[in-house]
Amino acid sequence: MITVGIITVSDRSSQGKREDLSGPEIEKWAEKNGYKIGGTSIVPDEIDDIKSKIIEYADMLIDLILTTGGTGFAARDVTPEATLAIIEKQAPGFAEAMRQKSLEITPNAMLSRAVAGIRGKSLIINLPGSPKAVRENLTVIEKAVPHAMDLLKGQVSDCGTK
Known about the structure:
Layout: E1 3-9, H1 11-14, H2 22-32, E2 36-43, H3 47-59, E3 64-68, H4 79-86, E4 89-90, H5 92-103, E5 116-119, E6 122-127, H6 131-141, H7 145-152
Parallel strand pairs: 1-2, 1-3, 3-6
Antiparallel strand pairs: 4-5, 5-6
């Protein structure tokens, strides 16, 4: 079973000034796909807080760590920088696919700086902050996630066969 860790990155939500709507969207998606929630957190837009939470979830052996928020152009949007600082390998196909599909919906998709990568046996993917964009982007990646998890867990020996 795939475990999912959800990290909402938001100054206002972490201070209780705004309800987190994107984290629960990820949780609904995970449950719909039969995944187990391994943790949910809300952290401020601070590089060290984001890094610490991602590392904590990876150390807990959570398979898929999804962040939401902090991927745009605003001065406080630092989720990609935090993610890049702690991953061991990049997995750019996820972010590329999300941006490509999102461009069919809005030209603002090109403003996304989301990244994806691997730390240990955990796949980390940055998602946008809006619930609508979270739903749209999860739809893009959901078919690739199970195979990615199998690969990270060493359960695939030969991807090149028919």
